[in-house]
């Protein structure tokens, strides 16, 4: 049972001061910029909601938004089941295998983000790369530069290589927190493997998995440097995600429009996080009953 | 769902291992190959020339030092403010605690590119641009939430009696933190430090915007190596060096990695 004590605020205060400085204040500033035309930052000219109107009436915006959502959905539907499956297999392995697999699978997480596409471009290079040579040898005409489907495959495989470790760590954290008594009870009831998974493991993993979904959704939704390096949004805008449009705008010093775009972007993130939080906490009591 | 036999499982893990390792292996191999005719060594031969070139370049060496400074600062900062906050969330209810927790979560998932422009303007005004201190502070926006989340889980797992006996023994809050709480959750601090470390080490967008002229981290130094005739061997050697500290961190926290995210439901 937790005590109710408002003095606990003092313990949170230092963290809050820093988050205000590097998070809340910049957010307020972006909001301000988004209503201005800024030739230089000292010469603002109030334009109201013009930039927002431009965004929501442009077809390009909806196309990028759709591509970003599609990418996140594909990435999640590959990495989440795969990650859970690996975690389930790990749970039945001994300590040595668990440590080895966890160490291996988390290595790509410590590679700087701008290096990931460099490593992969080297890997799939048809002249020097192992994967590139293998594909040529197999007679597969693989062309990530000019074939949109191939660019997407490279991005999804690369992203899975990069992030699978986080999903596995989170899923494994959820599974290993289940007390053995649950499994014993399931064994007494002669529950099948699938029933154990569906009614014990999945509900118990719910909190960490929802975090995994949220983190993976957001990080894939804002994929920037990886997609930029692989094909700079090409071929023919097939991988021009929302973040690439935004990056382009910032680089061309369109402060006002890019600020408005940032806010739209932020609101999408906020809406998804909020919906997600509402959905997972609303389901909690019924999930409790089924376990 | 049929449980695979232990050999089947090992074969599956081997496939995953190959998938993870082969791109890395090729990176390491390329880092030992001379890719530009330089220093009297022909192209395509095994050599240590790339690593020697790093040692001869002041800019590349500085970038490694810069990266280490800001990551260490960031980890210290996040643990320093994260620990008391995590303790507050774990032990007390207070006005607005839920909303505050959600607010922190929102900043973990806010795309960094959204904040990059005003952060640059703000930091240029207060003289923090182009310094490792500036990057260390900026990375707090996503690392403080992570450290609070992980530490809160570990503190909640410690029985309340630990606090109560310590306070009855006359410990003040800081002395309780250092004598009892920190030793009790040492693995948790390791895991939190690990995740703060990696997210700060790999971040690119904010690090780039804050180091336009000086104080460049490894990530930006690597970007600078691309040009008309890119020395890929050198790029790969820097990449290998950039991954080594992370792998060392993983090795130290390997037994506790997964425990970091256990939260009470």
TrEMBL record, chain A:
SUPFAM superfamilies noted in UniProt: MetI-like (SSF161098)
CDD domains attached to this UniProt entry: TM_PBP2 (cd06261)
Subcellular location: Cell membrane
Keyword Transferase attached: no
UniProt GO BP: transmembrane transport
Top-level taxon in the UniProt lineage: Bacteria
Membrane topology recorded in Swiss-Prot or TrEMBL: Multi-pass membrane protein
InterPro entries: MetI-like, MetI-like_sf, Sugar_ABC_transporter
TM regions (residue ranges): 12-35, 69-89, 96-113, 152-175, 259-276
Domain ABC transmembrane type-1, first and last residues per copy: 65-276
Record Gene3D superfamilies: MetI-like (1.10.3720.10)
Any single Pfam family the record assigns to this protein: BPD_transp_1
GO cellular component: plasma membrane
Record's keyword terms, sorted: Membrane, Transmembrane, Transmembrane helix, Transport
Protein family: Belongs to the binding-protein-dependent transport system permease family.
Protein name as annotated: Sugar ABC transporter permease
Organism annotation: Bradyrhizobium guangzhouense
Lineage: Bacteria, Pseudomonadati, Pseudomonadota, Alphaproteobacteria, Hyphomicrobiales
């Amino acid at each position: 049972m937790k005590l109710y004590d408002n003095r606990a605020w003092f313990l949170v205060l230092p963290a809050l001061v820093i988050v205000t400085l590097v998070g809340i204040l910049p957010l307020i500033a972006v909001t301000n910029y988004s209503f201005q035309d800024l030739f230089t930052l000292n010469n603002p000219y109030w334009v109201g909601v013009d930039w927002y109107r431009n965004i929501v009436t442009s077809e390009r915006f909806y196309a990028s938004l759709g591509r970003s959502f599609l990418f996140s959905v594909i990435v999640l539907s590959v990495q989440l089941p795969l990650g859970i499956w690996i975690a389930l297999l790990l749970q039945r392995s001994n300590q040595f295998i668990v440590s080895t697999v966890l160490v291996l699978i988390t290595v790509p997480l410590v590679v700087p983000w701008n290096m990931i596409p460099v490593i992969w471009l080297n890997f799939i290079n048809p002249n020097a790369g192992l994967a590139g040579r293998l594909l040529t040898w197999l007679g597969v005409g693989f062309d990530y530069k000019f074939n949109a489907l191939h660019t997407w495959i490279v991005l999804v495989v690369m992203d899975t290589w990069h992030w699978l470790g986080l999903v596995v760590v989170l899923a494994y954290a959820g599974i290993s927190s289940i007390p053995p008594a649950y499994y014993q009870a399931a064994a007494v009831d002669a529950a099948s493997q699938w029933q154990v998974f569906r009614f014990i493991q999945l509900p118990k993993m719910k909190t960490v998995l929802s975090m995994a979904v949220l983190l993976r959704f957001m990080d894939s939704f804002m994929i920037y440097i990886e997609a930029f390096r692989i094909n700079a949004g090409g071929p023919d805008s097939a991988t021009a995600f929302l973040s690439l449009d935004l990056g382009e705008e910032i680089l061309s010093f369109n402060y006002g429009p890019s600020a408005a775009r940032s806010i739209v972007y932020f609101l999408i993130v906020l809406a998804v996080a909020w919906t997600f939080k509402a959905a997972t906490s609303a389901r909690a009591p019924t999930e409790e009953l089924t376990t | 769902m049929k449980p695979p036999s232990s050999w089947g499982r090992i074969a599956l893990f081997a496939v995953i291992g190959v998938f993870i390792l082969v791109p890395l292996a090729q990176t390491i191999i390329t880092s030992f190959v001379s890719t530009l005719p330089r220093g009297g060594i022909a192209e395509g031969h095994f050599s240590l020339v790339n690593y020697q070139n790093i040692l001869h370049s002041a800019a590349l060496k500085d970038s490694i030092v810069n990266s280490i400074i800001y990551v260490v600062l960031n980890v210290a900062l996040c643990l320093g403010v994260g620990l008391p906050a995590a303790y507050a969330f774990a032990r007390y209810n207070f006005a607005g605690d839920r909303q505050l927790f959600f607010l922190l979560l929102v900043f973990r998932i806010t795309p960094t590119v959204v904040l990059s422009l005003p952060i640059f303007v703000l930091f240029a005004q207060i003289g923090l641009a182009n310094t490792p201190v500036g990057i260390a502070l900026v990375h707090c926006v996503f690392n403080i939430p992570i450290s609070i989340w992980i530490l809160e889980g570990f503190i909640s797992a410690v029985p309340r009696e630990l606090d109560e006996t310590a306070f009855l023994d006359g410990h003040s809050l800081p002395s309780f933190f250092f004598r009892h709480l920190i030793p009790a959750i040492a693995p948790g601090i390791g895991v939190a430090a690990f995740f703060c470390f990696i997210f700060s080490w790999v971040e690119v967008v904010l690090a780039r915007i804050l180091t336009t002229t000086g104080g460049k981290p490894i990530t930006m130094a690597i970007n600078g190596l691309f040009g008309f005739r890119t020395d890929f061997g050198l790029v790969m050697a820097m990449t290998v060096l950039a991954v080594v500290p992370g792998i060392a961190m993983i090795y130290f926290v390997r037994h506790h990695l997964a425990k970091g995210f256990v939260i009470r439901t």
